[in-house]
Write a structure and sequence with these properties.
Shape: globular
Strand content: 15-25%
Largest sheet: 6 strands, parallel
Structural class: alpha/beta
Strand order of the largest sheet: 2-1-3-4-5-6
Number of helices: 14
Bound molecules: S-adenosyl-L-homocysteine, iron/sulfur cluster, FE3-S4 cluster
Length: 483
């Protein structure tokens, strides 16, 4: 980060902008600093920002990059959105309700903007990659200042500078990219753990899913860049990384020198000072024996695997284009449990996919009973325009879906409470993440298997890995005592 600041300071903004990135962005960061400085002198106070993130870990990581740029150009963080001068929504569109929330909140922002002449509104993320969304914004939400997508987030500083220069709505959406820009600023939410992108995009085209359309084709980051980033993070106090990709198990296939995900993990394991490695998400069809072997022998990979099943019915899985059967999934689970007996398994399940019969649904319930997940995210199928499933016949009536959803949720929760309680009275190593939300004499930490435990402690423990005895299971979390 120190070097980055030096680079940015050394840019000559009286000249033309460099053509290549990241230098071009360093130039615009310096330029935007001047604009923000002038605006804050005019306002008679420092200008503030608030970034709100919807959706998955990818978006959370992208937001850290947005915050990195905003802080570099002189904005200060403000947690209360109503008070911020620059409000940014990093959006998700995986289900329809995510979209509705954004439109609802935008309506409120229109009013806030009338009251604050320095206010800017930025929209980015997956929803912006949908042409009909941008059309709607252009027509009915003229007060938005900057709109950009998932492929050019690295251009954020340039877009802000452009907005200051043009005084008009700036829209920059790309359909796809094969470009990965390294060495840009980013501001971590936690000092001791960090997400690390290992790949972008998705090539799987599950028939219900919009992600491949809004995140583009799969591309892997160079292993050297990943290792270098993690080494820098570790030097800065990070002990746990979460490797991020829509399908980490297909990492490395499109690299000039192909490499498997298991090989990448083996390299990351060697980094001194790094204590814990997590990753998500794993697609069952690509989970190799090599990976299971690496997980079995690793000292750092956490005992947790998120393995989305989506449905337990082979028929539905076929329509979903998941490319595995119920039996293959269950075999895979057995293999993993045999290799890593204390592993915690979690999953994603969709209820009400077009054509799902009661029998299909019972197959899903059967998988849940057989695998006994530690926890499961359950979703009601949401029709996404442009995906193959949106035009499939036999969309399921809402009442039927709701009934299945409730039955599934109950089963998942009952099993989860049983599975989670098996660790009672054991001593686990725990990474302390925060002071407890409800009781400030307690701290909250995360075990290797991703379960939370609350125990007596203070702020000085945050970021440390300590041994905790799990005295009482409270369903989805524990109360414990530090040893
Ligand atoms: N790449 C990950 C998941 C990304 S989206 C994977 O393949 O597992 C996260 C979850 O959202 C998915 O696992 C799926 O369960 C859910 N999801 C995606 N599209 C959906 C839709 N149209 N309706 C309901 N849930 C959906
Ligand atoms: Fe969507 Fe499937 Fe890709 Fe996951 S693997 S992001 S569910 S298309
Ligand atoms: Fe949503 Fe985009 Fe993630 S659609 S789930 S934020 S990749």
């Amino acid at each position: 980060m120190k070097d980055l600041k030096k680079y940015i300071d050394s840019m000559d903004i009286t000249k033309e902008a460099p053509i290549t990135d990241p230098e071009r962005q360093y130039y615009y960061i310096k330029k935007a600093r001047e604009y923000v400085k002038a605006a804050s002198i005019e306002a008679g106070r420092p200008l503030t920002f608030c970034v709100t993130t919807f959706g998955c870990q990818m978006n959370a990581r992208d937001s850290e990059k947005l915050v990195g740029v905003l802080e570099q150009i002189g904005y200060q963080e403000e947690v209360d959105e109503d008070k911020a001068d620059f409000v940014i929504y990093n959006t998700c569109t995986v289900r329809e309700n995510a979209n509705m929330r954004v439109y609802g909140r935008l309506g409120q922002l229109k009013h806030a903007k009338k009251m604050n002449p320095h206010m800017m509104i930025g929209l980015c993320g997956c929803m912006m990659q949908e042409p009909h969304v941008v059309e709607k914004l252009k027509k009915s939400y003229r007060f938005v200042d900057i709109i950009f997508g998932t492929h050019n987030i690295y251009k954020f500083a340039e877009l802000i500078a452009t907005r200051y220069e043009s005084q008009r709505m700036v829209i920059d959406i790309w359909k796809d990219t094969d470009k990965i820009v390294e060495d840009l600023p980013s501001e971590r939410k936690f000092s001791f753990k960090s997400g690390v992108n290992i790949m972008f995009g998705c090539n799987n085209f599950c028939s219900y899913c919009i992600v491949p359309y809004v995140r583009g084709r799969e591309r892997s980051r160079n292993p050297k860049d990943i290792i270098r980033e993690i080494e820098t993070l570790v030097a800065d106090g990070v002990v746990e990384v979460m490797l991020l990709g829509q399908n980490v198990n297909s990492y490395g296939k499109n690299l000039e020198e192909p490499m498997t995900f298991a090989q990448l993990l083996t390299e990351i394991e060697k980094i001194d000072g790094l204590e814990r490695i997590r990753f998500m998400t794993s697609h069952p069809k690509d989970l190799s024996d090599e990976l299971i072997e690496v997980m079995k022998n690793s000292k750092k990979i956490c005992k947790h695997l998120h393995l989305p099943v989506q449905s337990g019915s082979t028929e539905i899985l076929k329509k979903m284009n998941r490319r595995y059967t119920k039996e293959q999934y269950l075999e895979l689970v057995d293999k993993i449990k045999a290799a890593v007996p204390d592993i915690s398994l979690t999953t994603d399940i969709i209820v009400g996919f077009p054509g799902e019969t009661e029998e299909d649904f019972l197959e899903t319930m059967d998988v849940v009973k057989k695998v006994r997940y530690d926890s499961a995210f359950t979703f009601i199928y949401s029709k996404r325009t442009g995906t193959p499933a949106a035009i499939m016949e036999n969309q399921i009536p809402e009442a039927v879906v709701k009934d299945r959803f409730d039955r599934l949720l109950k089963e998942v929760q009952d099993i989860s409470a049983e599975v989670c309680s098996v660790h009672e009275e054991t001593v686990q190593s725990v990474l302390v993440e925060s002071i407890n939300d409800h009781d400030d004499t307690l701290v909250t930490g995360r075990m290797s298997n991703n379960l939370l435990v609350h125990f007596k402690g203070d702020e000085s423990l945050i970021g440390k890995i300590v041994d905790v005895k799990l005295s009482e299971c409270k369903g989805f979390y524990y109360l414990g005592e530090m040893q």
